Structure formats: structure tokens, C-alpha cells
TrEMBL record:
Coiled coil: none annotated. The keyword Lyase does not apply. The chain crosses the membrane at residues 86-109, 116-136, 166-198, 210-230, 268-291, 303-324, 336-354, 359-377. Its main location: membrane. It is a multi-pass membrane protein. One of its GO terms (cellular component) is plasma membrane. GO terms for biological process: lipopolysaccharide biosynthetic process. It is found in: Cell membrane. This is Glycosyltransferase RgtA/B/C/D-like domain-containing protein. InterPro entries: LipidA_mod_glycosyltrf_83. GO terms for molecular function: pentosyltransferase activity. The lineage of its organism: Bacteria, Pseudomonadati, Bacteroidota, Cytophagia, Cytophagales. Keywords: Cell membrane, Glycosyltransferase, Membrane, Transferase, Transmembrane, Transmembrane helix.
């Protein structure tokens, strides 16, 4: 007969293994999804291995838009002489996913003391778009979420025991998170705040562990920022230069990202306002519930507060970075750390109030949980089916592998000599780099549609390799038309997914 703790461990283990098996199934045919960020991580890893520096050859500039740790982790596979980087990292990603899901289950039981709510929480977390998407692509979110979990658990224990070793562990975990993604700055803020508030004693006693934590956590980042400033005169790269976005649109996209954790975005005129009101109402209720549980001395109230603070701050960071156009607008990937904490907070509140509520409340909670599962479970199955049949979207899916334009370029005998004497441009240099087509520059700046200086510079001729299937292709094409008015098309090759244009400066052009 198994003890209570053994039954819980077995339950968590079984769900984590089933979830991991589903991930393996989804990436078994076409592998992990690859986006532009994925290619940047891989290119920087290869550059670090071969040249001892972080450089992106398809951009002809240094790797500064991201911290270095994820690329260092990838480069370690080169150092141990791994032949198939993607396949090997896929195995690593699967283990990371299992570790995160299993840890989630352990924390869920710690917060709820209920096998039922632990299982429900794990299913909601596993089936949620932020979780599956983040771990099924070659993205830095996988190690980032794991390091964030280590930090959150370490911080809770540090506040309870206040030992130097645990404080150091917490600071190192926070440092690792911020060296994987700049978003880890949230962990630094959370750690500093809770250490200052929860440390017993006067101002000096509170400042001592707080400053030690911040110093250790930020030390590696300070060195990275110094390196970035020396080579680019920016701390986080020119691609993240501040440029104010539309406030109301950013609010809507942030609320939409949260809404789509569980439900499809409604196709109505006032859908944006609806999601803002709904999200504001939910977080207001959650804040009230957390505050009430704290006052009633909920056993794990300190961990609950840390998780709730983590949820709010990660969403706020997504909003701020999108507002200043230093990253993409909030989506499932960028909000995945907040989703982890949110689901734990949600099931903690639900389990607590169900035990202390009336029959009506229990029925309402059951209905809400049913809605959360009804949408995400079919979508989760759809993700797995897509991974098997066509591959997850990106440079490694079926369409990209069978790209007529890529195949034509690979088989050409003119491209390599051309890029040695002239600059060729494309709106998808990451795709071309991944398929071994080197020396082709990007037309626009990342995160925005601003054209690069190199592309805008007037030359006698330009070669443009245009993919019609990439994001923002139509909007960017409109911008390019204005820039290329001074040029005429002297040759054009069309393909199902794009075209190759040979352009020449017009004889009567004022720029000639």
C-alpha cells in the first residue's frame, strides 16, 4: 500500500511522463520548430565555437539583442563533438520539459494538498498554449522557465530560513535566468523586494541580504552589457531601440495574450474592450483572494504572494517592452513565465475557496475549470497533430523544407559568385542561413519594419530575394515599393513562395 506522499509522487510522475510523451510525438517527424530567434541562437553558438565570439554572419553584426547563456549552452554541444545539434538539443529540451512539468506538479500539490487539483492544474498547464509552444520550439524559454522556477522556490525557502547558502543559490538562479533572457530582470526585482520586506531587523539588516542578492545576480549581466556597449554603443542591441508604440493597442494585445491562454479571441467589434475588462476583473478578484488568504494565514501564503507578484510583473514587462517597441507584442511565448505562476495561483485559490465555500461556489468553479479545459485540450491535440503532419511553423516545417525558392537558390551556380562582389538582400535571411545560403543581408530591422541603412543606400543594382510567406510580407512589400521607385526590374524569377528580382537604377533617376 502506497503512502500519501508516494501516491502523489506517482500521480505527478505519470502526468509528467504522459505530457513528455506527447511532446516527443509532436517533434518526432519534423523536429523542434525554428523561428528567426532560433536561427540567431544557433548562429551565435556556432560563432562562439569556431571564433570565440558571438556574431551573426547573415546580419554582419554582433549578437547583442539577446543574453549569451542559451547560445553558450548550444555551443557546448559543438564542444563535445555532437554531429546533429538539433536532434541532440531536442533530447535536452524534452528533459527540460519533463523537469518543468514535474516541478509544477510538486508545487501544485504543495499549494493545494489535493491530488485532484494537482492533476487538474497539471492538465491546464500542459494543455495551455504558452507551455506547449515554448517547449516545442528551439527557444530560450525552456531553460529560462526552469531557472525562474529554481529562483522562485529558492526565494521562498530563503525567506523562511534566511541562510547564506540558500540566498546564494537564489541569486545564482536569478542570474542564470537573466543571462538566458533579459526578461529575467523581473526575478531580480522580485527577489530584492521580498528580501527587503521579509528580512527581520532594521534597515541595515534588511539591506545586507538584498544588496548581496542584487550584486551576485547582476554581476554577469554587467559584464555582458559592457561588452555590448563597446561594440554597438547600446546595452541590448540596436534592434531594441526605444520607439513609442500606440498605448491603447498595446493594452489590448497584452489583454488578448492573457485571454488566449484559455479562450479564442472573440471576433467582435468591441473584443478588445471586452478582453481588457475581463482580464482586469479576473486579476482584481485574484488579488482580493490572495490578500484574503494571506490575512487568514494560508499555509503557503508566502509562496503564493511570490507567484502572484511574478505573474503581474512578467505581464507588466511584456506590456512595457511592447509599448516601447523593444520586443514583439505580448503572445503565448513571451507570457509563458507568467502562465506558469498564474496557473499555480489559480488552482491554489480555487482549492482553498472550494474547501471553504458553499455548494453554489463549488458548482461555479467546476464550470470555470470545464471551460478552461474544453478549449485548450482540443487545441493541444491539434498542436500535436500539426507537429506530426506538417511540422510546427517556422524554418523546419514541411513547407520550408519543400520551398521552391530555397531549392532554386541551392541549385543555382550564380548566387555564390554574386554575393562575393555585391550585396544581396532578402526579407528572410534566417531561413536562407539555416539552409546554407550565406552572405545575404536583411532588408529591415528586427521587431520593426524600418529598412536597414545598407538596403536604403543607393547602388547601381540590387538583388532582392523575396519570400511572400513570411510574417509582415505584405506590409514590408508596400514599404519597399516606395524605396525602390528609383529602380527598374531587369529580370524576375517567380516561385510559389516568392520571387527573385534583379533591379537596376533608372537612367533618369535623380539619384543616378
Amino acid at each position: 500500500m502506497l503512502s500519501q506522499s508516494n501516491r502523489v509522487n506517482l500521480l505527478v510522475l505519470i502526468i509528467a511522463l504522459l505530457a513528455t510523451a506527447c511532446l516527443v510525438l509532436a517533434i518526432s517527424v519534423y523536429g523542434l520548430g525554428l523561428t528567426n530567434d532560433s536561427v540567431a541562437y544557433m548562429a551565435a553558438a556556432k560563432s562562439f565555437y569556431t571564433q570565440g565570439r558571438f556574431f551573426l554572419p547573415y546580419r554582419e553584426n554582433y549578437y547583442t539583442d539577446w543574453p549569451p547563456l542559451f547560445s553558450i549552452l548550444l555551443s557546448s554541444l559543438y564542444f563535445i563533438k555532437v554531429d546533429h545539434l538539433l536532434f541532440t538539443y531536442s533530447i535536452v529540451a524534452v528533459f527540460l520539459y519533463f523537469a518543468v512539468v514535474y516541478t509544477f506538479g510538486c508545487l501544485a500539490y504543495r499549494l493545494t494538498r489535493s491530488r485532484l487539483y494537482t492533476a487538474l492544474g497539471m492538465v491546464i498547464f500542459v494543455a495551455g498554449p504558452p507551455t506547449f509552444i515554448s517547449f516545442s520550439y528551439l527557444w530560450s524559454e525552456a531553460p529560462f522557465i526552469l531557472f525562474t522556477i529554481m529562483f522562485l522556490v529558492g526565494l521562498d525557502r530563503c525567506l523562511g530560513e534566511q541562510k547564506f547558502g540558500i540566498l546564494l543559490f537564489t541569486a545564482v538562479a536569478a542570474s542564470l535566468s537573466i543571462m538566458v533572457r533579459y526578461a529575467g530582470v523581473v526575478n531580480i526585482g522580485i527577489g530584492a523586494f521580498f528580501l527587503f520586506v521579509y528580512t527581520n531587523g532594521g534597515l541595515v539588516k534588511r539591506l545586507k541580504p538584498t544588496l548581496l542578492f542584487v550584486s551576485v545576480a547582476l554581476f554577469p549581466l554587467a559584464g555582458w552589457f559592457y561588452r555590448n556597449y563597446l561594440i554597438s554603443s547600446t546595452l541590448t542591441g540596436a534592434g531594441r531601440t526605444v520607439a513609442l508604440s500606440h498605448f491603447s493597442y498595446t493594452v489590448v494585445t497584452t489583454a488578448k495574450a492573457v485571454w488566449e491562454w484559455f479562450l479564442p479571441f472573440p471576433p467582435y467589434t468591441f473584443a478588445g474592450m471586452l478582453t481588457i475588462v475581463a482580464c482586469a476583473s479576473v486579476f482584481t478578484l485574484l488579488a482580493f483572494a490572495v490578500a484574503t488568504m494571506y490575512r487568514r494565514h494560508f499555509v503557503e501564503r508566502r509562496l503564493l504572494m511570490i507567484l502572484f507578484a511574478s505573474t503581474l510583473l512578467y505581464l507588466f514587462l511584456n506590456f512595457i517592452t511592447a509599448l516601447f517597441r523593444s520586443s514583439e507584442f505580448p503572445n503565448a511565448r513571451l507570457t509563458s513565465p507568467a502562465f506558469f505562476s498564474f496557473v499555480l495561483v489559480l488552482i491554489s485559490i480555487v482549492s482553498y475557496w472550494v474547501r471553504n465555500g458553499n455548494a453554489f461556489f463549488k458548482t461555479a468553479v467546476a464550470a470555470v475549470v470545464a471551460v478552461l479545459l474544453l478549449f485548450n485540450l482540443p487545441k493541444y491535440v491539434q498542436y500535436i497533430r500539426q507537429g506530426i503532419t506538417t511540422g510546427l511553423s517556422g524554418h523546419s516545417d514541411k513547407a520550408s523544407r519543400n520551398s521552391p525558392l530555397v531549392h532554386a537558390l541551392q541549385q543555382s551556380d550564380w548566387l555564390a559568385p554574386y554575393v562575393q562582389r555585391e550585396i544581396a538582400f532578402t526579407n528572410a535571411p534566417e531561413k536562407l542561413y539555416y539552409y546554407g545560403l550565406l552572405g545575404i543581408r536583411k532588408t529591415n530591422v528586427d521587431y520593426r519594419l524600418d529598412l536597414t541603412d545598407a538596403f536604403q543606400y543607393t547602388t547601381e543594382e540590387k538583388l532582392l530575394i523575396w519570400f511572400s510567406t513570411v510574417d509582415n510580407a505584405e506590409r514590408l512589400h508596400t514599404i519597399l515599393k516606395d524605396t525602390l521607385q528609383q529602380y527598374e526590374v531587369v529580370r524576375e524569377e517567380k516561385y510559389a513562395d516568392g520571387k527573385i528580382l534583379w533591379l537596376k537604377l533608372k537612367q533618369n533617376s535623380s539619384l543616378h
